[in-house]
Amino acid sequence: MKEICRTALLALLFLCQAGAARGEHALPAWLQPVEIHGYAETRVGWRPEKGPEETGWSPVEARFQGDLSAMYDGFELKLKGDIWADGVTDKVEDDLREAWVFTRVGEYTDLTVGRQVLTWGTGDLVFLNDLFPKDWQAFFIGRDGDYLKAPSDAAKVSLFTPLAGVDLVYTPRFDPDRYTDGTYILPGNSGPTDTPDRWFRDDEIALRIHRTVKNYEIAAYGYKGFWKQPSGTTPQGTALFPALEVYGASARGQLGQGIANLEVAWYRSLDDLSGTDPLVNNSERRYLIGYARDLAHELTVSLQYYVEELLDHGAYARDPEATRDHRRQVITCSLEQLLFNQNLSLGFSGYWSPTDEDAYLRPLIVYKASDRVQLTAGANVFTGRHNTTFFGQFEDNTNIYASIRCAY
Predict the structure, then answer these.
(1) Rounded to whole angstroms, how far apart are CA atoms 143 and 105?
(2) Core vs surface per residue 141-163: b (16+ CB within 10 A) or e
(3) pLDDT tens across 68-121, in order?
(4) DSSP helix/strand/coil, 247
(5) Domains of the chain by start residue, with CATH
């Protein structure tokens, strides 16, 4: 039923766009408030080195996205979806990214229900208290950065009070990350997985309470659900998503000539609170501190220092197959230079872990040839001393890619 509904919504979206292309008079009266946008894109990537079971070309895509939005008295609608021919899977793929309705309930409450892309937290491509699903496959193969944040099928309530703002998100069925499952990278990484998928039983709840104090944005967070990627196994080797609670806080505001941010999170692995089960992830504490500022005209730089502290590491280290350090440290750097009236963007983001001795580099060039045509070239470069570390395991998946996008 879910697949039928998704296909029907995508069909409606693209039929509406076809009608809009023939002129506004082709639309029925109830569609007159509708705004329709989208793009067609071709994206091709090449791997200089590849694993024995991997293709040398990835991604290879011809993609079409449709984006429909409408405002009526008392509510808003959004429908966005992608259809693409995928040269890696040799299939026509589709993804309904947004399908939601928004309304205001009373004077102080907003309600959004449906498929929506959600995010919060202060990190720049580093997520501590943001437990909404991420698409790491899209990120690592070089799709547009917007695709890193995957959609959630959820209801979001936002309450505004003089004391603080409150955001509550309820997901009736667990939405995991789109992790590296062997489809595009690490083909040997696939295996049996037991994903929680019972409606209203395997659910998720995320909470944020936030306010501004003397120009600083402060927030507290809570989450109850599951690890977003497989973080445990059965004795038979089936990957599991153990139960998880997360509590955290953040602050963000001006410091000197730039913007500083601080964020912490405590991950409670509910299926192994003592840290003695070698088949389930231990609890963790995570820390992030960052700073961003303009160095020159149209040149922005940001630096971050991120730490994952594995709790009960002594119990974990007794396992002869243990590979994780007590504390994993990562330093990130991001730069963007805008040129030619902001039509050319030269970007770079990098992750380097001195403890894992690995790194991930993302150079990116984006050129707006016109209001409708955009050219992109970039790379995903992985390196590491060991193939068991987070970035080191992807070393054979380094790629160079380019795309051309025509918007309407």
Answers:
(1) 37
(2) bbbbeebbbbbbbbbbebeeeee
(3) 999 988 899 999 999 999 999 999 999 999 999 999 998 999 999 999 999 999
(4) strand
(5) 2-407 (2.40.160.10)
